[in-house]
Request: fold
Amino acid sequence: MNNDDTISGDRELYGGFISDRKNIKQEKSRLHRQKEVGDAFAFKEDVDFLHQIAYCFERSYGLKMAGKEERIIIQSNKEIKDLINGGEWIIKMDPMILHYCLYFCVYYENELLKEYLFHEI
Reply:
């Protein structure tokens, strides 16, 4: 093996690593923000679907009342939408879940999700 090949190969590897440092920091920052929002919606896996939704609505309301940034509240609503969309098979078995969700929208004053659910029902 030629030393020139090894050295030039190492330079390309380290050069790429150094040039990607800024992207890595940005990605870590983005993942940290996602983790903060994700932690807000963390629940045990053995909780049934309706209680998961209720918890997410309650948590979203808490974030709103605490005066959190609008992007965090929008992210919390997106988490609720994802939970509802991911549980379509459960909703097909028990359509009353959508009515409970609508009730949670009214109770927790979530106008954005209320409009979304009106279109779902």
